[in-house]
Amino acid sequence: MAAASLASAAVMLAAGFPLVAAHEHHNVTHIDPGVPIGATMYVHMTLQTFTWGILFPIGMVLGLTKSKYHVPLQSVGIVLSLFGSYLGHHHGGREYPATVHGLMAKIIFVLLLTQASLGIFLKLHIMETTVRPHIRRAHKVVGVLYPIVGWTQMLFGVATALNFCRGGNLGQCAAHYIMGSAFIAYAAILVIMLNVGGAWLKRTGFSQEMLDSTVITVWGIINTFTEHHGGPWTHKDMQHTMMGVLWWAGGMLGMFLSRKGQRSFVPAIIIVFTGWGMSAHEQDLMISSKIHALFGYALIAAGVLRVVEVCFVLHDGPSDSAHIRIFQHLPPYLLVLGGTLFISATNEEMHNANDRGIDHVSYALFDFSLSFLIYLVITFLVHLYQNTGRNAAANRGGVDQAPEAGYSQLATRGGDPDADGPEAYELTEHGSDDDAVKIGGEDEVDWIGNGEHRGGGGGVRL
């Protein structure tokens, strides 16, 4: 059934790709902001945001936990994405020329078709000792890319719909979108490490601050040499360049202080200093200055609270994933808020809001609301990872890497039983999640892992 659904989705993708590739963008050369967007395009936006912002990330998590719902959910997502793309090319209202959003759509179609094809191959269970391990790894890598690709395409979509980031505004747009997204990604990493990364940090001997400081150092070096593009230096060029110097200088100090698994205050202080710089970053419009100031205040608060967490809540020790304090959610949430504010603070966005009579309070309240939704998605996905598939069974039974209730893992020829993806778990008949599962004859599977199998049965391939 799962293989059939994947095959159907792949066929639909193959049939729909020529339509996307041949789309002529209505033979227009520019976007007319005076023309309404149109109801069909709003449906396209809503459907694709739901599919790529919620549905596919959930499917990715279910794949990582080897859940039986992974394949059906991803198949539904492929169909919805294909339908949403069709709407994006068959609409009334505002017309759009060829843009990076359209180019990214073609890349996404190739990605979807590749992922579906890899999934079908894995479902066939052929070449298990030669080709299949490589296909499994490729399938996982492509799946993990979905949230990143979806987020990028959503940003491209907003810029295209509102005719932003074209011509001389491209560089400024890219800076805001990349840095804002980086803060949100950093927050997501902090949430992941807070909930499920403690064991990995302990095993590798790193502290979270060592990882943070390393990334900050690399990013600071890049920023130092990419913020001035020739010509006279402006105050913005100097501020952005010195921000890069701050990051690599502080990052190297953080790397030194974080050696041998020690905690450090440095990454948090760098965020505080960055926030202070942004809060004093004067802009042409009052609304722009206010939003940039709020962005800076959010970073300052995140950095200060991170120092409090490391030094006074955890007392320089590692986080305990089994006993997470509510306070520990404040720094990553504020980073999400800061990233959301910065993404929405480009020159064109600020002028658009000002022209529409939107004040900084209303604009900020919208950003606050959006940051709540983004943090909800992040924390929900982490919660889902901890409580679905093999992780749910492990939590119920107290055994790591237990198979999902209602599924038995396919027999493997040696190697790690976790090496297979979700396709290795085939549906079996069962009475309840707490009972052993009957698989023909007298064979039983003891989900807890402490009992003996009756009969000669091992893994079963259906």
Automatic annotation (TrEMBL):
InterPro entries: DUF2427, YTP1_C. Residues 408-462 are annotated as: Disordered. The keyword Transmembrane helix applies. The chain crosses the membrane at residues 46-64, 71-88, 100-122, 143-162, 174-198, 264-281, 293-314, 326-345, 365-385. Residues 1-22 form the signal peptide. The keyword DNA-binding does not apply. Residues 25-125 form the DUF2427 domain. It holds the Pfam family Ytp1. Residues 150-385 form the Protein YTP1-like C-terminal domain. Residues 427-441 have a biased composition (Basic and acidic residues). Keywords: Membrane, Signal, Transmembrane, Transmembrane helix. PANTHER family: INTEGRAL MEMBRANE PROTEIN (AFU_ORTHOLOGUE AFUA_6G12730)-RELATED, PROTEIN YTP1. This is Protein YTP1. The gene is YTP1.
